[in-house]
Amino acid sequence: MLEITNYINNDFKAFESSEKVSFVQDFFSDLTFSHFPIIEENIYIGSIAADDVVTFEKHKTIQEYRYTLEGFFARNTMIWLDVLEVFAQNHTNLVPVLNEQNKYIGYYELSDIVQFFAETPFLREQGGIIIVKKAITDFSMSQIAQIVETNNGKMLGLFISEANADFIQVTIKISLGGMNEIIQTFRRFNYEIISEHQEDSYLNNLKERSDYLNKYLNI
To answer: How far apart are the first and last CA of the chain?
Structure first.
C-alpha cells in the first residue's frame, strides 16, 4: 500500500537559523523552491520565502530575520488530502514535515504529492467523471453514493470541488453502471449536472429539438 510518508524528502538539509543570508540566497538562486525550512537544534521554527530572502542583507544571519518566517507545516500523521490543503493555503511548493514532538523530519514537495494523487484509484482507474451541483441546504454525501450505487455504479472517489454559502459542487469518479441512468437520477433528485456527457441522451434530445425549432422559426 502506497503511503504518503514515503515521499518525505531529505535531499537538502534544513537551514540552521545561524546560517548566513548570502548562503541561503545562493541556494534559492539554484533551485525552484518557494520556501525552505529553518531549524534550531532540529526544532522547526518556520520557513523562509525565496521572495523575501532576496531583499535581506547578505552579511546578516537568518536569525536576524526570524520575524519574516512563515510557520506552516504538516505532521507525519496527516493524510494526503490534508497535506495538499497545507500546500494550497500557503501558496508554496514545499511543506516541512514534523513529528508529534515538533521535531523536523523532512519535507514534502508539491510535485511528489501530485504524483501520489495520480497513483490513487481516483485517477489511475478507468471510469467516468460527473460534476454535480446542489444547494448547500439540500446536499447529502450519502444520497450521492446511493444514486450511483442504485444504478449499478461503483464510486472510485469524490471531492467537493467548489463551495460557497449557497451551493456545493461535487466531482465524482464512477466505474461500472450506466452513466446516462446515473445522470438522469441525479436530475430527478434536483442535482444540476455541470459536466458534459456524450451518454446524456436527455441533453442530446433537447439539443436536437432546439435545432429543429430554430430551423422551423427561420423558414
So the answer is: 64
